[in-house]
Amino acid sequence: MTADTIVNPRTPVAPRRKGVNLEKWGWLFMRGSGVLLVVLIFGHLFVNLMLGKGVLGLDFAFVAGKYATPFWQWWDVIMLWLALIHGTNGMRTIVNDYVTHNGPRRVLIWALWLVAAFLILLGTLVVFTFDPCIPPVPDALAGICPA
Ligand code: HEM
């Protein structure tokens, strides 16, 4: 092959390895999570900003009301997990594209997943352990929280 021959674009850069093709599953995950995120994010914005009193109705009691139902807890937690894993995997792609040295590339990708894991843990704990009745109880919840 001479230097000016154009290589078939489908030629693998390295011999195909056996086992699970993580890049393929990552690619599929980005498309699947993207579709789900559209529903979750726009559903979230619609319910919070447009239904009822709209944005004027947003206060502590509104959040407390939402987190009193497992449906909204799971909606928010799934949105959090998907957005963080999707965003982190997207950042991993960008790091792989631009950081050419192996050391810094590995450090950055580890840092990305560590931050994502920490935020997923923290966010999940906040949603599922949220208790609006910890004093001082706001007036709007006085009738709901035990005295
Ligand atoms: C609204 C719903 C969303 C949809 C439909 C969506 C869709 C996608 C798709 C299809 C890709 C892959 C692009 C490619 O491989 O060329 C992508 C990449 C990416 N997404 Fe999302 N996404 C959404 C929300 C988000 C959110 C909330 C974040 C951040 C937390 C995010 C961050 C990223 C990043 C950093 C990339 C990598 C960009 C790149 O490769 O250049 N996306 N998104």
What does the model show?
With 147 residues, this protein is mostly helical. The protein has a single domain (23-141), classed as 3 helical TM bundles of succinate and fumarate reductases, CATH 1.20.1300. Helix content is 63%, strand content 0%. It is built from 4 helices and no strands. The chain has helices spanning 22-49, 60-66, 70-98, 102-129. Helix 1 crosses helix 3 (70-98) and helix 3 (70-98) runs antiparallel to helix 4. The protein is elongated and about 80 Å long. The model has no long low-confidence stretch (mean pLDDT 92). Bound molecules: protoporphyrin IX containing FE. Protoporphyrin IX containing FE (HEM) is lined by residues 30-31, 34, 37-38, 41, 83, 86-87, 90-91, 93-94.
Question: TL;DR of this structure?
Answer:
By secondary structure, this protein is mainly alpha-helical. The protein has 4 helices and no strands.
